[in-house]
Amino acid sequence: MSDLRRPIRTFTIRQLCQEFKCTPRALRFYEDKGLLNPARDGMNRVYSYKDRARLQLILRGKRVGLALAEIGEILDLYEADETGAQQAAKSLRKFRERIAALESQKLDIDGAIAQLQQGIAAMEKRLSETDLLPRAADYDQVLRRRLDGVEHSETK
Q1: SS3 for 14-54, per residue?
Q2: Residue 4, SS3 per DSSP
Q3: What's residue 133's pLDDT?
Q4: How many Cβ atoms from other residues are within 10 Å of residue 48's Cβ?
């Protein structure tokens, strides 16, 4: 019978940073928060397949907006639950909560976009009625210079 376990392979902080496009500072931060626990070889961190898998889950959780504490809870359950049932149940609940929060944010964002579009339409209509729309870009440049303090420094 063949051994189906992963071969013993380790990763350096540089390798994981390159693979997952993150910074060494981020990995050290996750270590400080107890989410990663790499072995040490002198002053060097040595990451296992388990650490690599945990990092992948951390980054996925962050990408969908889970808090680090929530990610930690899910990862901790994985350690305590050999079948994975508790982790799956907790993850399912957290994922559903996150979907509900994102859907609410999406509605808020869609509403804000609609308000901005209405504002743009109203301003464009007003400017076109007064024949100022073609010169709106010129006004915008003057306003930007004033806000950036360019005109103030030119007068000194």
Answers
A1: HHHHHHHCCCHHHHHHHHHCCCCCCEEECCEEEECHHHHHH
A2: coil
A3: 61
A4: 16
